[in-house]
Amino acid sequence: MKVQLQQLRKAKGLTQEEIANILDVKLSTYQKYERDAISPPYDTLIKIADFYGVTTDYLLGREPAKPEPNPFADLGLDKESEQEMLAQYMSFPPETRAILMDALVQLASVVKPNEPETIRQSTMIDCGTVGEELERRARQKDTA
């Protein structure tokens, strides 16, 4: 656990004292965790895992995988923001949701397999605005 704790703490740019305060343990106790002199109790282990966004197995060295990345980190979004966006999407009329879903399907089709979930500038599709698309579809209905 020593290596994982040190790497995670340093990656966040925090001191041992700051982490000890966050975990509500004495500095000397936290230092013992990092030295592997003692193991944190179960509830503290969970706090550490939750704080860093990793599993307890990762902290215990049983899981070689790196912590799961936050796909919203680059956008400044979190799980709550994602839920807000979904709620906004669901508040749109069905026709608007269909247009947005179509745009998402088109965007997803240009993302190459095994590529990060970001779309390179060169593969961006100009979808216009929802209003423009509604007008275009209304014109199609009128001419049909």
Can you summarize this structure?
The chain is an all-alpha fold and 144 residues long. It is built from eight helices and no strands.
Layout of helices and strands:
Layout: H1 2-11, H2 16-23, H3 27-35, H4 42-52, H5 56-59, H6 79-91, H7 94-110, H8 130-143
Helix pairs in contact: 2-3
Tag the structure with descriptive keywords.
mainly alpha, 434 Repressor (Amino-terminal Domain), 2 domains, 144 residues, 8 helices, single chain
Describe this structure in words.
- The protein has 144 residues and is mainly α.
- The protein folds into 2 domains: 58 residues, lambda repressor-like DNA-binding domains (434 Repressor (Amino-terminal Domain)); 71 residues, no CATH class.
- It is 60% helix and 0% strand.
- Helix 2 crosses helix 3.
- The longest helix is centred in the C-terminal third of the chain and has 17 residues.
- The protein is rod-shaped.
- The protein starts with a helix and ends with a helix.
- About 6% of the residues have low confidence.
Overall structural domain count:
2
How many helix segments? Answer: 8
Strand content: under 5%
Question: How many strand units?
Answer: 0
SSE arrangement, N to C: HHHHHHHH
Distance between the termini: 68 Å
Q: What is the average of the pLDDT values?
A: 79
Unreliable spans are 117-125
Shape field: rod-shaped
Oligomer: single chain
**Main sheet characteristics:** none
Structural class: mainly alpha
Q: State the share of residues found in helices, binned by percent.
A: 55-70%
CA-based gyration radius: 23 Å
